[in-house]
UniProtKB/TrEMBL annotation:
Residues 60-126 form the GHMP kinase N-terminal domain. It comes from Desulfosporosinus youngiae DSM 17734. The keyword Kinase applies. This is Putative kinase involved in propanediol utilization. It holds the Pfam family GHMP_kinases_N. GO terms for molecular function: ATP binding; kinase activity. SUPFAM superfamilies: Ribosomal protein S5 domain 2-like (SSF54211). Gene3D superfamilies: 3.30.230.10. It comes from the Bacteria. Keywords: Kinase, Transferase.
Length: 305
């Protein structure tokens, strides 16, 4: 066998429901959505190079890590992406890329793309989200010591805005004063964490959105979003329950119930009014997602020449 092909898809996030620190250890609770990074990895067993887009440096890093961990120095191949996640907004685009590529490569090799294994690869590259796990998962996203499944995703509609700019995840998590910021807000984050856990366990979106709002407001100290309060007020006036933010990104989203009240026509009106009132550089509507990777059976091709 000379070639093998693996396919994998990983969701992104609408920021994090909660992000902060517990006893000085940073953690987050992801907010997975129905936007994805998809990767097709065609492996060659007699070439050492990789053919992939030049900007996908973190995908290249995980391929090299995988090659080293499996003891396959001659492994190479081609990677193709189908991407629905804008970069630098806090939507876990890097983690989704890393995870999708690693999962596709492992599938091609007949290896198990277990979420724990994928998280270990991702955390060697940068502080990472927990999108490789199904449901909603708490993870120590910097030190990577622990993760905990909190429950199934709660149905929700997100109206997400972004006013431009890019935040680098590694630079954000290395910034001076971040540990002190987390320490100051530890009690608020603990309150948000408890509400989030209750909301997930009970399927109560209002509690989850309240948790998201508390955490997002704490985050303003290190990642200011000038239109936060006007947007939150408007969201609540329109039937929303609160907001969720990208703590190390530029995204801010209103959290709405996923009910018949928000029909297709109502959603169009919501988008239009948000565009007119807040003039974002980026605007989209997402739904919550069950989280976790999806892989396809690998294909193999023999070189008969």
């Amino acid at each position: 066998m000379d070639f093998a092909v693996g396919l994998a898809r990983c969701p992104g996030t609408c920021g994090e429901w909660v992000q902060g620190a517990r006893k000085g250890v940073p953690f987050l609770i992801d907010c997975p959505i129905d936007r994805f990074s998809e990767a097709r990895v065609a492996l060659s067993f007699d070439a050492a190079g990789w053919d992939l887009p030049l900007n996908k440096t973190k995908a290249l890093q995980v391929l090299e890590l995988l090659k080293e961990s499996l003891g396959l120095p001659q492994l190479g191949g081609k990677v193709e992406f189908s991407h629905q996640l804008p970069e630098g907004k806090g939507m876990a685009s890097s983690t989704a890329d890393i995870t999708a590529v690693a999962a596709a490569a492992l599938m091609a090799l007949g290896e198990d793309p277990a979420p724990e294994r994928l998280a270990q690869f991702a955390l060697q590259i940068e502080p990472s989200d927990s999108v490789m796990f199904p449901g909603i998962t708490e993870i120590e996203h910097v030190q990577g010591h622990k993760h905990r499944w909190l429950g199934s995703s709660v149905p929700a509609l997100f109206l997400a805005l972004d006013w431009g700019g890019i935040i680098d995840t590694r630079a954000f998590n290395a910034r001076p004063g971040l540990a002190e910021h987390y320490r100051r807000h530890e009690s608020d984050i603990e309150r948000a964490y408890k509400l989030a856990c209750e909301g997930i366990e009970q399927g109560d979106l209002e509690k989850l959105a309240t948790a998201g709002t508390i955490s997002a407001r704490c985050n303003l100290e290190v990642n200011h979003k000038p239109l936060f309060e006007p947007f939150l007020t408007w969201v609540r006036q329109k039937g929303g329950l609160g907001v969720v933010t990208a703590h190390s990104g530029t995204l801010l989203a209103g959290v709405f119930p996923q009910t018949s009240v928000f029909s297709l026509e109502a959603r169009k009106k919501l988008r239009l009014e948000a565009q007119q009132r807040f003039s974002p550089a980026y605007l989209d509507l997402f739904h919550s997602h069950s989280g976790g990777i999806v892989t396809a059976e690998s294909e193999t091709t023999e070189n008969t020449g």
